[in-house]
Specification:
The protein has 10 helices and 17 strands. The protein is of the alpha+beta class.
């Protein structure tokens, strides 16, 4: 990954985007896509849609959701502690002992979430997983008056953002789910822009996937694509305690995962697999026996139907502050999507 592409990824990972508060990250996407796209628009929902050859009759849509799980400030008590509700699907244990950022109108404020020290927990408390109502955010305020001057009800909260390189071209960060998908769809569009695609290609940084695939529904309705590919993370199984028998044999660094199953058009799958073989792009194959929990679910059911594919990035420790991905997998995925677009011509038929 060259310096410019890595810089784009780091900017994505340093931008807060809990569902419903995706503005800062979309600024990053608009800036990047504006350098090569023929058209960059933002709809009323907040989806950023970057297009190459947008006037073409046939249209392809790539979707990578930019939002992440988060919290929302619900109450500020008189001692200055913040109480929050969940945005998206959380394992509450991931919150204990974490550095957090409260994203206010005047900028981020550092805070922490913890609970009373182990010395003070009763035997029953030590065995019990707390609920969100049992946890508070400490920003160091002296009292409620000071806290309320800085924080407003409804302010979003995320893990402390950042990017941490690891061995073997891996990296960890909160929000890899799904900043990596946004990076892939925009990088694929950049590569396509250097060629002459016969189709219109629309890469979308979709909003509110974590609370119901909402941005994919609205953007797909507006674009009306014939074919679409959702790019998201998937569970890597190359670490302890994750079952390969239940989830497939998926390795971080083994290449993007191309899915097959009822949520995937069989012609799209075959095309992606053939192109990966032809262009020597590493990929892994996995199956999904139900409608996906990502944007492909909504895309497949758009209007009269869309020929849908799923390309996923292996991710260890999803929905945690230490999600791990391979930068090599991202590059391979972007190449695969670009080749997919460039292979479509007048003779291409996605009818099963």
């Amino acid at each position: 990954m060259d310096a410019s592409s890595l810089d784009f990824l780091k900017k994505l990972l340093h931008s807060p985007a809990p569902s419903g508060y995706e503005g800062p990250i979309q600024d990053v996407v608009r800036e990047f896509a504006g350098e090569f796209a023929d058209e960059v628009t933002t709809d009323l929902h907040g989806n950023v849609i970057a297009a190459v050859n947008p006037k073409a009759e046939r249209r392809v849509m790539f979707a990578g959701h930019c939002d992440q799980i988060g919290l929302l400030v619900q109450y500020i008590d008189d001692d200055g502690y913040l109480w929050a509700n969940l945005i998206g699907g959380w394992d509450i244990q991931m919150l204990l002992g974490q550095n957090m950022q409260v994203h206010t109108t005047s900028g981020p404020i550092h805070g922490v979430i913890a609970r009373k020290a182990i010395h003070l927990l009763t035997p029953d408390e030590r065995k019990t997983v707390p609920e969100i109502k049992d946890l508070w955010i400490d920003i160091g305020a002296k009292n409620g008056e000071e806290a309320r001057k800085l924080v407003a009800i409804g302010d979003p909260v995320t893990f402390e953002l950042g990017f941490r390189p690891m061995l073997n071209n891996l990296a960890s960060a909160p929000g890899m789910d799904n900043r990596v998908g946004v990076w892939v769809v925009m990088e694929a569009l950049r590569q396509v822009s250097q060629k002459s695609p016969e189709v219109g290609v629309f890469s979308v940084s979709t909003v509110q996937e974590e609370i119901g695939l909402r941005g994919a529904k609205t953007s797909a309705y507006s674009i009306q694509p014939e074919v679409g590919i959702a790019v998201d993370v998937t569970h890597a199984t190359d670490c302890p305690a994750v079952s390969k028998q239940e989830n497939g044999d998926i390795k971080v660094g083994g290449g993007p995962v191309v899915y097959r199953g009822p949520n995937v058009n069989p012609v799209v799958f075959s095309s992606l697999k053939s192109l990966a073989d032809e262009h020597e792009i590493d990929c892994q194959i996995n199956g999904i026996s139900r409608p996906a929990g990502n944007d492909a679910n909504a895309m497949q059911l758009n209007q009269g139907g869309m020929a849908t594919g799923i390309v996923a990035l292996p991710n260890r420790y999803m929905h945690s502050p230490v999600e791990v991905i391979s930068l090599d997998d991202l590059e391979q995925a972007a190449r695969l999507l670009a080749e997919f677009c460039l292979a479509i011509n007048d003779q291409t038929d996605f009818t099963p």
